[in-house]
User: What shape does this take?
Amino acid sequence: MKWISIFLFIPIVFFGQKISIKKIDSTAYYVQLANFNKKTNNYKSALAFSQKAYNYAKLNNDIKGKADALFSLGTTYFELKKWNDALESFTNSADLYNQLIPSTNYAFCYYSIGLCYMSLEEFAKAEDNFDKAESIYNLLKIDASPFMNLQKGILYKNNGKTELASKLFNEIISKDDKQDIFKTKAEALYQLGTIEQKLNHSNLSVNYLNRALLLSTKEKNLDQKAKILLDLSKSYEKLLDLKKSYTYLKAHIDLKDSLSHLYNKKLNTDDYVSFRESEQMKAIDQMTKENETQQKTNKFAKLISILAIALITILSLLSLSLYKNNIIRTQSNNTLKEKNFELQIAKDNAEKASKARAEFLSTVSHELRTPLNAINGITHLLIEDNPKENQIHYLNSLKFSGNYLLTFINEILEINRIDSNNIEIEYIDFNIKQLLLDIQNSMQEIASKNNNKFTLEIDPDVPEILLSDPTKLSQIFINLINNALKFTKNGEVKVTAKLIETTEAYSRINFAISDTGIGIPLDKQESIFESFSQGSIEINRKYGGTGLGLTIVKKVVDLLGGEINLTSEVGVGTTFDFELNLQHGTKEIVVEKEKLYSEDLLIGKKILVVEDNKINQMVTKKMLEKKGIICQIIDNGEDSVEMLSKENDFDLVLMDVHLPGINGTIATQKIREYDTKIPIIALTAISLDENREILMSFGMTDVITKPFEPENFYKIIAANLC
Assistant: This one.
């Protein structure tokens, strides 16, 4: 379907300065007259005044005037949907702007060329010109992302990269209307609607398209409204709502007829042909005059030719002397090309090896979770089953080992997520002081074990509400504080937050975690952030740990735009510090109290467990029955779909994600086709390619990660039974 931009020409005065017209007979004056006639739908006069502006600028050898006039002519052709004529005018305008200091008009000219190519469905050329426009906006330090991201999204969609396209469109529609300067939200909603339509998600498609129609109607964008009506008709047809499908199709046809009449009123065919023929005749006359002038200069050109031949002869002699040098240079270049090719092969092999390593570690981490779930679950059941006193020690040791192994697996998975760029920074409002106080309170018990004084110093000038990723920040602080407390005995651990710089938009804050512990030798400080590094084998044996915590800390600090520094002296102590630019928050933080559940809520509830692993079936069933829950087991997704399609009295479903046959996500999708209310909780050993948002998108209501901690397991089930 031919894509037509719905908001081509945002007024240039939005980015640039208004033009003050000092005299009546000027390029700017004629351009202003052309713009006025466009507003009154007098496109014949608009074309004439744009051409007059160009002729005047050409007469006065005014490069900027010619560029402005051609740009005005291009906008007129574009609004008349004369794409090739518009493309010619914009291209000539861009060539002229290229001779001047970069300006917003120059950038917008390339953007307009991109839109012309989009209309002509030449998407590769469109993308090239959008990139040129974006580079100029960046040079001018102008944020053009709202409408540039929309065009990128449409290009991604046309190239089949629907996931990248959807991500950009969702970023656009998530912004407040006040930020929607270029009225891009309606188009983003429309594009999302067409994506969901191709995926046969008709209900979701109708939702997006109706929202787009509402905004389009509000902005009185008739071209956009027409195509939205057409796609709404298609989506309702897929939903078998033929009445609505016909209604929207009729509205589309009526609007298209109105638009066709409107465009015919702007400029009829005879006026357009007459204007083009007139300009062609003027161009022919100009060429004739230039030919006459050229003939007068031919005699002089002959003399110049003779001198040129003499000069060429001299240059030829010089070229012979350079010939041997060129041969040597060519040989050197060929050698360099061969070396570059070898280096490229080595680089590709290194990248493949890195990818294979990440995939292997992710698979191992994922596969270890299933047996570990059985170990931790059976251990919990044995501890709860009144063991003998001499068995409690062994069971607690087994529980500790299981938790230690789980921590190790999680850290490997976290490093793989970061290395594979499979992790995103979440920007939300949070209270930095409350975050640090909560961490301090949660780690006081660890501090007391080694008889450490644990203090927190926060600069009173540090803003309370900031915008960043509190989960990632907590990950940094917990790892660093835990290390400080572990390697310090009868000493002090101090966390400080100091304001370095503040502006209207952000504050630069220095965070430091210092201790009076054993310190780090100088020769080990460079490698301390590497994976599995703890300074020495002796330290690893004495204090334990995986050696991955600092690796994760450094990678997360880098993701947040900071750089971590280390200062340490053996026997004196260690200080880790880093600085971050954190944007100021806008919302008041409301602290929600943790919801408690009553075990009475679980008694007598009936839960369907879909799990193929026999040991996990046994563990899960035992844990549920301990709380008085009635449990039924199914070992595949197909049977769960069939059972739930019939009349049943299940209160909740625990669905393993990885099942033989159809997996848990597909089974959930099928169940949701006829039952949208029953809670379905995913049981998953989350891998590198999975996350909570992906699982929830298939219709699941919550997620429990294997191996699950019993109290959290019961709490999530209770929350979904309320």
User: Anything to note?
Assistant: The two ends are 48 Å apart (CA to CA).
